Amino acid sequence: MDDWLRKQIEEVCLHPTGSLLRQQGMNRLLIKLQQLPGLYKSYHLDDLEALNETWERVSKNICENFQQMGDSLEESLTKWINADLYKRRKRFLSPIVDPNCISLDQPRNFSEAGEQRTRLDMLASEGFEAPFLDEIESQIQQAQERKFKRIALRLKDYIDQDPLGRLQGCHPDTYPKCTCQALSQRRGLKEPPDEFHEIASDWNMPISTLTNHWYGRCRTLLKKIAKELGYEKDKLS
User: Fold this and answer.
1) Which domain holds residue 167?
2) How far apart, in whole angstroms, are the C-alpha atoms of residue 192 and residue 214?
3) Would you say the pTM of this structure is higher than 0.85?
4) Please, what is the Cα angle at 78 between 76 and 79, to 5 degrees?
5) From which domain of life does this come (predicted)?
């Protein structure tokens, strides 16, 4: 594996950026890199977006920025890719703090005895018990989950039937097989989803064209359809 990887990287870096030969060599290299045994894998959509960004950075920077550390080229590449992916995931998955959200655990003031009191302490002293709050939160979560499941089933039926032809009609000009309907069935409805390199190989197309179409057009269209079906959040999960 090390010999093949080294030879393929050298071949890629021989050709100028943007050339057809470099793109073809990079596609072959990316297919192998995606199969590295120590590579972090996840099927969460946010992780997939982060991974897509990482592959783009690998394509652009492997010739200039990658340096082998240690005896194994395969292990060095795995660590390099995982390190970049960790940075992408940290940005995608970092919690967003709502400035209007009030924490019940935040210290509010001091009691007469000099002890810190939280908002939850103050609510409890006024008759609001923590179990009551937990029960309300649980009921809200259950209702949201039931609603999400109903919409998810409706979205699955919509993808399979595509009544208006919106998903079938959305594809790259030169790759008519790569419709948003077919991609959604292979990426969104299968468990686990098909890997991008498998789909690109089946449809004989560059993996970059495939991923750009999925993230740039198909997911945007699916979000719009999901909202029309009643999904209120801005991001599918």
Assistant:
1) 142-228
2) 17
3) no
4) 65
5) Bacteria
